[in-house]
Amino acid sequence: MSAGHQHTGERHDAAPTEDLVGIGFGPANLALAIAIEEHNAQCGPGRALRSVFTERQPEFGWHRGMLLAGATMQVSFLKDLATMRDPGSRFTFLRYLHERGRLADFINQKSFFPSRVEFHDYLRWCAGTVEQRVRYSRETYAVRPVRTDGRVDTLEVHTRPAGGGTPEDGTDETILRARNVIIGTGLRPRLPEGVATGPHIWHSRDLLFRSQEARAAARPHRRFVVLGAGQSAAETAEYLHREFPEAEICAVFTRYGYSPADDSPFANRIFDPSAVDDFYEAPDEVKQSLMDNHANTNYSVVDGELIDQLYRTVYQEKVAGTERLRILRTTELAGIEEIPDGVRVVVRSLTSGERHPLDCDAIVMATGYRSQDPRELLGPLADECLTDDRGRLRIGRDHRVATTERVGAGIYVQGAAAEHTHGITSSLLSTLAVRSGEICDALLLGLAGQDLLSGRADRAGGTVDTADGVAVPAP
Ligand code: FDA
């Protein structure tokens, strides 16, 4: 479809209206695509959901810059995209292992925690089965209402090639129409105030790519600084120490030491699907205390084994008199300045107040991620969304954003942007299987309520409509 539509008045073009357009195709919306796929494969005539997803990456990728050799998942393989909703699903991690011919080998490892590289391969395997529904290399930059007599029952999702541009400068815009949208755009890298990434200032998100470039530069690397005390920071310090055997690694953080993630069984219940109900129903002050009390299951904490490994390294280097992994505790970043072939990082001790310059090849900001407010994409539609007394989106238990009565179209949000309503699992993988089933059910209910599912000929004789409107055999 071409650009330049009016966003008001009735639309008469031929673009099909999808039941759902998903924005972002990370694990969260992938899990939903699978739930929809499974629903479509077994539903009765006229009950299939038509969905399309947009993703700015050229192909499926899950934190590719942190697929470090040896890094393992922080979640049991049983919390894959399907098992907790339906252990008999064809999208389980066990089914994946069986298809890859590694089921027995995996079992012999006696571990619940696959490597991150393997889990990424599992996610890609899942994504491959719904590929026809995904528009890769397309960035969604706006969701606009289509108003008919003041009501909004259809939304337009505006996409462009990843990398930006506008229709005015000739960029190829595509507009998808939908009864419902779901925003699952994940997290954005967080950087210290006033700091931007560059050739010598990296975010941990890009660690593998930037360090490969650094290695290709074929000059000796003397020093790296890693800022942060969470899992990514500890992994980055360990990785750089291993991959650059000539370099000194300075781990800088304001804590006194790395703190272990609480993965004990009672605390781990905070990641159960039922914990989402408990959190959702709790008063605001209880929500806050749950987040405070259990932040150490996820935020600014490190896997215990990795802490032990790093400590052993520090100690052994002390014994050998070659201290290459240096822990600069209770220390903050006080300044960064470019120098030839690197950066001068100034750090300040919080105890003595002393400042020290550290000239290094690169500083890695392992400073975490921040949530993106979905309203950034919604433009004028944001005014139709209801908020709580702190100005945050009101999001239903089914992940649908509460709107004025003028809006009949569904705006759903999942991921970190729903943490204030749905709790600590929102940004994680733990409840994706169950959550995606809940959202799929909510979509069906909403469409049935508007009588939009009846009279469809979208599934007959063992065929299912694809996003392109092409009938393919049902799986
Ligand atoms: P995610 O960020 O993964 O995906 C969002 C997608 O949307 C991306 O593919 C992005 O390109 C796309 N996108 C964004 N804006 C767009 C736009 N405007 N248009 C089109 N596309 C757009 N959790 C856990 O439970 N167990 C674990 O072991 C780990 N491990 C882990 C390791 C590392 C290194 C990190 C950084 C994080 C984890 N996590 C984790 C947490 C992590 O948030 C979680 O695993 C998922 O990535 C969350 O999936 P989402 O789909 O919500 O976001």
Word description of this protein:
The protein is α/β, with parallel strands linked by helices and 475 residues long. The chain folds into three domains: 5-186 and 372-473, 3-Layer(bba) Sandwich (FAD/NAD(P)-binding domain), CATH 3.50.50.60; 190-261 and 299-368, FAD/NAD(P)-binding domain (3-Layer(bba) Sandwich); 267-297. The protein has 13 helices and 20 strands. Strands 1, 2, 3, 4, 5, 6 and 17 form a seven-stranded mixed beta sheet that branches. It has a five-stranded parallel beta sheet with strand order 8-15-9-10-11. Strands 12-13-14 form a three-stranded antiparallel beta sheet, with no helix packed on it. Dihydroflavine-adenine dinucleotide (FDA) is lined by residues 23-29, 54-57, 62-63, 66, 73-75, 139-140, 184-187, 232, 415, 427-430.
Topology (SSEs and partners):
Layout: E1 17-23, H1 27-42, E2 51-54, H2 93-100, H3 103-108, H4 116-129, E3 134-135, E4 138-148, E5 151-161, E6 174-183, E7 187-189, E8 201-203, H5 207-216, E9 223-227, H6 231-243, E10 248-252, H7 265-268, H8 273-281, H9 284-294, H10 304-320, E11 325-328, E12 331-339, E13 342-349, E14 355-360, E15 362-365, E16 369-371, H11 375-378, E17 410-413, H12 419-422, H13 432-449, E18 459-460, E19 463-465, E20 471-473
Helix pairs in contact: 1-13
Bound molecules: dihydroflavine-adenine dinucleotide.
Dihydroflavine-adenine dinucleotide is lined by residues 23-29, 54-57, 62-63, 66, 73-75, 139-140, 184-187, 232, 415, 427-430.
